[in-house]
Amino acid sequence: FQAPARRTKATTARQRADAWPLVNRGASLLQAGRTAEALNVYRRAFALDPANEFAGNGIGTALIIQGKHAE
After folding, report:
1. Which terminus of the chain is less hemmed in, N or C, by CB atoms within 10 Å?
2. Cβ distance 15 to 48 under 8 Å?
3. How far apart are CA 63 and CA 18, in angstroms?
């Protein structure tokens, strides 16, 4: 287990705000069974805000659904 990254000054308020619509989109895609697309969207959100726990959890959930437990 790796703890979530801490927010740094490099992550701006704008980046954190921009990550949330992606997290919501990822959740919608995951619920629709579009796991690969959801994973890509969650990764984009995580790239914007590495401390966003929902993006990190979404990535983990999508990987588990795909059977990629080691990633």
Report:
1. N
2. yes
3. 23
More confident residue, 71 or 35: 35
pLDDT at 56 over 60: yes
Q: SS3 letters for the chain? A: CCCCCCCCCCCCHHHHHHHHHHHHHHHHHHHCCCHHHHHHHHHHHHHHCCCCHHHHHHHHHHHHHCCCCCC
| pTM for this predicted structure | 0.82
Say which range, 2-11, 35-44, 60-69, has the weakest mean pLDDT: 2-11
- Side-chain half-sphere CA neighbours of 1 within 13 A: 2
8-11-14 Cα angle (round to 5) = 145
26 in Cβ contact with 47 (< 8 Å): no
